[in-house]
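Lecture 7 notes: from sequence to structure.

We start with a single chain of 137 residues. Read the sequence below before looking at the structure.
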Amino acid sequence: MNLTLGIIKPDAVSKGATGKIIDRILSEGFKIRAMKLVHLTKKQAEGFYKVHAGKGFFEELTTFMSSAPCVVMVLEREDAVKKWREVMGATNPADAEEGTLRREFGSSIGENAVHGSDSEENAKIEIAYFFNQLEIL
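Now the structure, written as tokens:
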């Protein structure tokens, strides 16, 4: 079994889609090993997305991610990173396949409802950003 980080972003939380997204996560065979509601500060959002510092979308992304609460989760299943990325869909909701979370709940490239780690290595880094080992069951 593998772990990945999942985030229900501020746009989806604000729209009241958290429960539907969690239902989908569970129906896809994931186990939620840790979960919490957080409201990131701008500095915390910049720290989490530091790999994108200097890119054109960095300011907009970190402002958005610190604009309202989001739900961070540690998800577990076989091929967790790959499977979660499939369930999320393409970054741009307009390009995402029918049935994906971003297609259903996202409204733009910037406000695309969910985040997921892009590799097992980054999953470890991202999980450690939000959770200590005692919080992961």
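The chain has a mean pLDDT of 97. Keep this in mind for problem set 3.
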